[in-house]
Automatic annotation (TrEMBL):
<keyword id="KW-0472">Membrane</keyword>
<keyword id="KW-0812">Transmembrane</keyword>
<comment type="similarity">
    <text>Belongs to the binding-protein-dependent transport system permease family. CysTW subfamily.</text>
</comment>
<dbReference type="GO" id="GO:0005886">
    <property type="term" value="C:plasma membrane"/>
</dbReference>
<keyword id="KW-0813">Transport</keyword>
<dbReference type="Pfam" id="PF00528">
    <property type="entry name" value="BPD_transp_1"/>
</dbReference>
<keyword id="KW-1133">Transmembrane helix</keyword>
<dbReference type="InterPro" id="IPR011867">
    <property type="entry name" value="ModB_ABC"/>
</dbReference>
<protein>
    <recommendedName>
        <fullName>Molybdenum transport system permease</fullName>
    </recommendedName>
</protein>
<dbReference type="InterPro" id="IPR035906">
    <property type="entry name" value="MetI-like_sf"/>
</dbReference>
<dbReference type="GO" id="GO:0015098">
    <property type="term" value="F:molybdate ion transmembrane transporter activity"/>
</dbReference>
<dbReference type="InterPro" id="IPR000515">
    <property type="entry name" value="MetI-like"/>
</dbReference>
<feature type="domain" description="ABC transmembrane type-1">
    <location>
        <begin position="57"/>
        <end position="259"/>
    </location>
</feature>
<feature type="transmembrane region" description="Helical">
    <location>
        <begin position="240"/>
        <end position="263"/>
    </location>
</feature>
<keyword id="KW-1003">Cell membrane</keyword>
<feature type="transmembrane region" description="Helical">
    <location>
        <begin position="185"/>
        <end position="206"/>
    </location>
</feature>
<feature type="transmembrane region" description="Helical">
    <location>
        <begin position="12"/>
        <end position="39"/>
    </location>
</feature>
Length: 268
């Protein structure tokens, strides 16, 4: 019996480059394994099913989903404008849109507080109308949206630039209105990028901590998301903090892996 010889496809990369690549991967993965090894498995389900833990998880999933919807509603038009428009100041506008990516989250929380707080730029007028935002569940959603929105814009803008505009021009030449072109041509063309950006936004919103704590506070069942619950548990029960951290990691991994698989199939 003749066995087929294995054909090794050269990567085209220098051999030394795999060493720092492996070190980088180890740097990311090793802390996760260290946390996994520190879990008190005998009390795991007891720790993650406490009333405060379940309330924090439910609030995190609900607010992250709402903030992702806001990111899509606001981020898709923003990405379209940034990728298809050309006007003076566009680079400045793009820099401002992407600013939350590099801004410390606590600074973002302070900025939101001075915008929507009781004495904020907009909040003082909302207070007159009886609308309170700061230190409410709405504040959690706004804080998550503020830090997660750039992830969707960056992902979708890249997809739009890669896809080009030739199909849109062809549809417009055939008489389709701009709205029809955007809905029937542009969005289906960049759907994998949209899904990827939405998932990144959801994952970022799910893990948001600094802006949420500053702008929304930490009230159980109202503003205390899972990252805040983990932080508080770390001060009193380290085993509970590790167990809840593992839950957050598992949820994030399942969402990212599942969505990447769906996006890959959609791109085929």
């Amino acid at each position: 019996m003749i066995r087929a010889a294995r054909v090794r496809v050269p990567s085209g990369l220098p051999g030394w480059i795999f060493v720092p690549a492996a070190l980088g991967g180890l740097f990311v993965v090793l802390p996760l394994f260290a946390m996994l090894a520190s879990v008190d498995w005998s009390r795991f389900f007891q720790l993650v099913t406490s009333e405060s833990s379940l309330a924090a998880l439910e609030l995190s999933l609900r607010t992250a989903a709402l903030s992702t919807v806001l990111c899509v509603l606001l981020g898709v038009p923003m990405a379209a404008v940034l990728s298809r428009s050309s006007f003076r100041g566009l680079h400045v506008l793009r820099s401002l849109v992407l600013l939350p990516l590099v801004l410390p989250p606590v600074v973002g929380g302070i900025a939101l507080l001075y915008t929507f707080g009781r004495k904020g730029l907009i909040g003082q007028h909302l207070e007159v109308a009886g609308i309170h935002i700061a230190f409410t569940t709405t504040a959690v959603v706004l804080a998550q949206t503020f830090v997660a929105l750039p992830f969707l814009v960056v992902s979708l803008e890249g997809s739009l630039r890669t896809a080009g505009s030739r199909y849109e021009h062809a549809a417009a030449t055939l008489g389709a209105s701009p709205t029809t072109v955007f809905r029937r041509v542009t969005l289906p063309l960049v759907l994998p990028g949209l899904v990827s950006g939405a998932v990144l936004s959801f994952a970022r919103a799910l893990g948001e901590f600094g802006a949420t704590l500053t702008f929304a506070g930490s009230l159980q069942g109202v503003t205390r998301t899972l990252p805040l619950e983990i932080y508080l548990q770390r001060e009193t029960d380290a085993d509970a903090a590790v167990a809840l951290s593992l839950v957050l990691v598992v949820v994030a991994v399942l969402i990212v892996v599942g969505s990447r698989g769906w996006a890959s199939r959609a791109a085929v």
